[in-house]
Amino acid sequence: MWERWQAYERIEARGIALLSAWLSPEQRSQFEKYKRFDVIGSESGKRYRICYGTSTNVYEMDGRDRVVLGWCFRPVGSLVPGDVMLAQKIALETNERATLMVAQPFPSTLPPRASHAPGG
Question: Is 96 inside any structural domain?
Answer without folding.
Answer: yes
